Structures are given as C-alpha cells and as structure tokens.
Automatic annotation (TrEMBL):
CC annotations in GO: membrane
Organism: Coralloluteibacterium stylophorae
Parts of the chain that traverse the membrane: 189-208
Assigned keywords, A-Z: Membrane, Transmembrane, Transmembrane helix
Stored InterPro entries: HAMP_dom, HlyB_4HB_MCP
UniProt keyword Transmembrane helix present: yes
CDD domains according to UniProt: HAMP
Protein name per the record: Methyl-accepting chemotaxis protein
GO biological process, one term: signal transduction
Keyword Transmembrane helix recorded: yes
Limits of the HAMP domain: 210-250
C-alpha cells in the first residue's frame, strides 16, 4: 500500500468517493437486473397462466349454460325462444376456446388439451343434433338425445376440463412459488450487498481518515513541543503526500 500512502490527500478522498460510487453502481445494476427478472416472471403469469385458467372457467360456465338451455328446450318445446340462445352459447364457447388456445405453450404437453378439445367437440355435436331434432319438431328424439348423448358427454367434457384446469393451476402455483422464491433471494442478496457496500465504504473512509489523522496528530504534537521549547522530538514521515511532506519538513 506504499503507492496509496504516497498519493495526495485529494486523490485519496477521490478514491474513497469513487469506491462508494462504484458500489452504488453495482447495487443499481443488480437491482435493475433482478427487477427485470421479476417483471418477466410476473408478465408470464399475468399474460399466460391466469388467462388460461380464466378461459377454462368460461368454457365450463358456457357449457353448463348450454346444457340448461337443452333441458329447457326439451321441457318447454319453445324452439323460437331457445335457438338464438344456443347460437349465442356456441359463439361464446368458440371465443373462450380460441382465447385458451392463443396462450398455449407450443413446447408443452398437449395431451390434456387434446382430450378436452375432443370432448367439447363431441358435446357440441350432440347439442347440435338435439337442436336439429327440435327444429324438426321431434321433441321425443330431442329428449332421447339429451338423455342418452348430451348428458353423458357433458360429464366426460367436464371431467376433461377439470383435469386440464387442475394441471394449469398446478403450473400457475409453481410459477407463483418460483416468483416468490426469486423475490426472497433478491431481497436477501440486496440486503447483504447493501451492508457489504456500506461496510466497505465506511472501512475505506476510516482507513483514509486515520492515515491523515495520525500524520496530522504527529505534526500537532511536534509543533506543540517546539512551541514549548523542546526540540528533541523525533518524527518520521511514512508517506509522500501533503502530510508526509509536512512531517518531513518539520
């Protein structure tokens, strides 16, 4: 550290300030990186996981409402009232299915999704046959389709939707847990780095101020001795900075 002792005091102070600025910059870059990571994780959760779960809930709700219309149509035999409701539900289900498909990961396992899609297609086909029978005025056939085809297919469809929903929720929970873990790690690392930066900055400041203070203390003691008429004081300059040159001249 001889080279550091010989630096002018101004340079030593500049070195201390520069070290503090460097540590601040490192902490800022670290915080920025962790915030970006957190933003990407939250974006994936909000933009992919949550919309998928919501879309499945919508599909299930629309299918349940469609089943209600089927039973009401068979019971009331009022085709004119329920035909537009069937059409509205078909449109709503198609929209929700499209919404879910738009968030599918191309690399993910699609086994459950394909199972659900086939079950929904089967249910909608049975519902269409029921509506065709009602349109022809054959409500006895419509009732048979409702009982023998639509009802069991609805159970199969709901089971497939529930299985896919459970898988998506499990994936959502895993992403939330990973995000929480990353937050805790970032927080702990930031606390440790902040404490380390403060400690290093304080240590550097203490080291520099002590170097200067010791030299000035020696100069003050010699000056006091000279003022008292004692010229036998020994003094040793250990640096080539301003304080060292002052001690050397004395």
């Amino acid at each position: 550290m001889r080279w550091f002792n010989d630096l002018p005091i101004t340079y030593k102070l500049l070195a201390s300030v520069s070290l503090a600025a460097l540590l601040t910059l490192v902490l800022s870059l670290f915080s920025f990186q962790r915030l970006n990571d957190a933003h990407r994780q939250i974006g994936a959760i909000a933009g992919e996981d949550i919309p998928k779960v919501q879309a499945l809930g919508d599909i299930r709700g629309y299918l349940g409402e469609l089943r209600t219309y089927e039973l009401a149509l068979v019971s009331t035999q009022n085709f004119g009232e329920y035909e537009p409701r069937f059409a509205a539900m078909d449109t709503a289900i198609a929209g929700a299915r499209e919404q879910y498909a738009s968030h599918l990961d191309p690399d993910a396992d699609r086994t459950r999704y394909e199972s659900m899609r086939g079950a929904i297609d089967g249910y909608l086909a049975a519902s269409a046959r029921l509506l065709d029978a009602a349109r022809a005025g054959d409500y006895e056939a419509a009732a048979a389709i409702s009982s023998d085809e639509s009802r069991p297919q609805r159970r199969v469809t709901f089971a497939a939707i529930d299985a896919l929903t459970a898988a998506d929720r499990e994936h959502l929970d895993a992403d939330l847990a990973a995000s929480e873990a990353a937050f805790v790690q970032s927080r702990n690392a930031l606390v440790v780095l902040t404490l380390a930066a403060v400690g290093i900055a304080l240590g550097a400041g203490f080291f520099i101020s002590r170097r200067i203070g010791v030299a000035l203390g020696e100069a003050t003691a010699v000056s006091r001795a000279i003022a008292e008429g004692r010229f036998d004081s020994r003094i040793e300059a250990t640096s080539r900075d301003e304080t060292g040159r002052l001690l050397e001249s004395m």
